[in-house]
Amino acid sequence: QKTIAKIATCLELRSAALQSTQSQDEFKLEDLKKLEPILKNILTYNKEFPFDVQPVPLRKILAPGEEEHLEFEEDDEEGGVGAGSSDSFPARVPGTLLPRLPSEPGMTLLTINIEKIGLKDAGQCIDPYITVSVKDLNGIDLTPVQDTPVALRKEDTYIHFNVDIEIQKHIEKLTKGAAIFFEFKHYKPKKRFTSTKCFAFMEMDEIKPGAIVIELYKKPTDFKRKKLQLLTKKPLYLHLHQTLHKE
Question: Is residue 230 part of a domain?
Answer without folding.
Answer: yes
